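Treating backbone geometry as a discrete language has practical consequences that deserve illustration. The sequence in question and its structure tokens are set out directly beneath this paragraph.
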Amino acid sequence: MKMKNMLIGGMSLALVACISVGGTLAYLSDNTGTMTNTFKFGTLEVTQKESDGTNNVSNSGSLTYEDLVPGDTVKKEVKISLTDHNVDAYVYVAVKNSNETLVKYGNGDDEAFKAGVGSDWREVKSDQVSGYDLYVYTGNTEAAKAVTNFTDSVLFANAQVQDAGTGSDTVGDDTTIQIASYAIQADHVTGHEDKAIDYFDSYAWN
């Protein structure tokens, strides 16, 4: 019986030893680490600024012209820029004139005044455009031009009060000219012109 107990005890010790050895065995492993992909998006920013020769405003700012009479030509230089430029874009500008018979925008002084816009811009002729004039940047070419940047492209430089021909002591109600700009990415987007018109119709004058 004593011998049997000793045998059992020895076997138990041997089993414990085997478990202990098995528990400390080294093993092979490997890993890849973490791969991180970062997606950085392009940016575009269209800005507009205006000067009357003394005061300067930008984007949604405003200027007021006082004590005008028929025949006056005032400096109203509107410049458009496309900045933060790493995305090709089409740029549109809308001009809303509350009384285009009385006040016209254009270039040139006094008798040399000519209504219209600078050579970088072309008027968009569309039945969908109503209540404002729409222009697209062409960079002095015939067609709309997708660009990554341009700086201080002059839309027009002056405004002129026309002869009202009323013969009265007043010319008429105050007239406003509103200007809004819109840029849209060129790649992977169709119907840029339609989207610009939708924007001006829905948001620009609100």
Notes: The two ends are 104 Å apart (CA to CA). The first helix runs from residue 2 to 23. The chain is about 15% helix and 30% strand. The longest strand covers residues 150-161.
